[in-house]
Amino acid sequence: MYYEPQCYEGRENEVVSSSVNLAMAPQVTAVTEPVTLGEGPHWDSEEQALYFVSIFDKSIHKYDPATKKHTRSVLDDQVTFIIPVEGKRHHFVVGLKRRIAEVIWDGQDGTAKVVRTVAEVDKHCPDNRLNDAKTDPRGRLFAGTMGHEYEPGKFHLKKGSLYRIDPDGKTKCLADKVDISNGLCWDIKEKAFYYADSFEYAIRRYDYDIETGDISNPRFVFNYKDHGLEGIVDGMTIDSDGNLWVANFDGHQVLKIDPKKGKLLEKIRIPALQVTSVIFGGSNLDILYVTSASMNRGVEQKPPCGSTFQVTGLGVKGLPSVNVKLN
């Protein structure tokens, strides 16, 4: 199925499908102001709020759907993800360049403070930076890195890695020679970990041991070229049926994929070229939040590019985001 949204007069920020009955079609609505490079969305079930970052703006963000309030706080370096710390209200781990740091933030504008460095990665490649990161079902932090972007859209390749940071702060490298580390999610039932190195234009599946956090036996379960897709694999999440929802950067869309069959199930058009990441949220975990970017790489990306969007009416539910455990 392919849903092609259109804007309707008087609803400039709301996008709905024209290819099927509108009552049944997904609706896409911009819910935040645009940022330069929105990334790393995390739904906090306790706060009933969405957290995300804008990497090049060096800022962390909170969106409260109940009040529609969007707040932000600027840190001292490129910030690549934000995840609440289990059992410590208003404490988060964030990626700051190559550092994983603990931040305290009450969610108000301009009040965040870095309190300590938890770990530092890729010391052998000082120009690298962290990119996507999430917690596994046991609260361990999985964080990936990427090489330096020396020109817009051009990177030092095979410089990145994927790390696991355990609650005691110990760091283990799980994969190396990565271009851009992206798209992390887990399926406990299938004992699977899904991951993307963006310039492989594919999705990897690893065997996953929930007791140890170890991954093994990587293989490809979905390739862009097999489905005629353009752009690259960016962030992803998983629904309760075990299907993946994948941000298609430079593709104007989110993809729904069955990783067990390697089948493309749906395409959801997003009114932003640079779709960066996705997460399920809302009280029923049935709203898909989609971050995007507005980077000018020779073509101006006008609003609503760079906004975070909500997609409703998908008929599926996600899994709860897991807070990070830190000793």
From TrEMBL:
InterPro entries recorded: SGL
One GO cellular component, as annotated: cytoplasm
Catalytic reactions on record: D-glucono-1,5-lactone + H2O = D-gluconate + H(+)
Molecular functions per Gene Ontology: calcium ion binding; gluconolactonase activity
GO biological process: one example: L-ascorbic acid biosynthetic process
Keyword entries, A-Z: Calcium, Cytoplasm, Hydrolase, Metal-binding
Cofactor(s) of this protein: Zn(2+); Mg(2+); Mn(2+); Ca(2+)
Top-level taxonomic group: Eukaryota
Location in or out of the cell: Cytoplasm
Primary localisation category: cytoplasm
Domain SMP-30/Gluconolactonase/LRE-like region: 37-294
EC numbers for this chain: 3.1.1.17
UniProt xrefs under Pfam families: SGL
Family in the record: Belongs to the SMP-30/CGR1 family.
Name of the protein described by the UniProt record: Regucalcin
